[in-house]
NAD-dependent epimerase/dehydratase
Amino acid sequence: MKALVTGANGFTGSYLTKHLLDKGYEVRVLVRKNSNQSALEGLPIEYAFADIADDNPLEDTVMDGVDVVYHIAALYRAENVPREYFWDVNVKGTRKVLEAAKKANVKRFVHCSTVGVQGEIKTPPAKEEDPYSPGDYYQESKMDGELLALDFFKKENLAGCVVRPVGIYGPGDLRFLKLFKYIYSGKFKMIGSGEVLYHLTYVEDLAAGIALAGEKEAAIGEIFTIGGNEFVTLNQLVQKIADIYNKPVSKLRIPVWPVWWAGYLCELICLPLNISPPIYRRRVDFFIKDRAFDISKARKLLDYEPKVPLDEGLRKTALWYKDSGLLESSSALKS
């Protein structure tokens, strides 16, 4: 089997690429020529180069000989780009990859979406069929990309499915660095009660789940939530990380809404100037919105089974941050 992985130089994409190689796949990666490709160094892979956000169709050679496409590439949480660029990458770019796959008669297509398309979970744990409710323009663009992919599969008779990752973490990730760093430094203060639910997925488990979605016949036409074995309250998550570092956790609670309004004002001032705000409202969402999901469908149809318990995954990630010097670096806090 030959797989094409878009966005393979990113966190999830690089782990998926390595997982596919371990399973015996031939792998071609599609990345931007000027992107950081250090995560792929030394791997026995083929390279194809393109910017899926521009108006040029993909060259035929990109899909030549490919059996399955894993479309991971996306614009994620960038604050210093025009809002329309999220749709250029996450919708128009997805259409470009879909059309190229159809033209090349690719056998399978896996589109990577996000559980963010369901926004705040009103009745956790959420199932795949629960309604869309995106909470920001990133999530809106991913919803539009997901709907486009599902519609394309039906209309163009392309065997494909959608996967929605839950809270991806692990060595190499920087998304959760601030949380770990503040806990390690003793500066962490909980915003709100801390009793909201949070669900994480160790990146190696996610890679295995995405690969299965491209292999199982039962996956065709379906949506799958790929998550870890358990979800916990934010208080519990913070305590687990603090215990790894043997650090105390402050009992001080910061009120939510003053921080939310501060984020709103920062965005109002900074975004028109293309400056990354010091505080975002979406970061406050982390403290006030439930994020818990039901992964039974992936278990049943994909034979997906997370192998890394939350405590083990958190320990591996926490030690990677520490061993990499990221907890001591003053620049790490800005990541």
Observations:
- Residues 330-335 have pLDDT under 50 and may be disordered.
- The longest helix spans residues 84-103.
- The domain at 2-173+199-228+291-308 is CATH 3.40.50.720 (Rossmann fold).
- The CA atoms of residues 22 and 143 lie 31 Å apart.
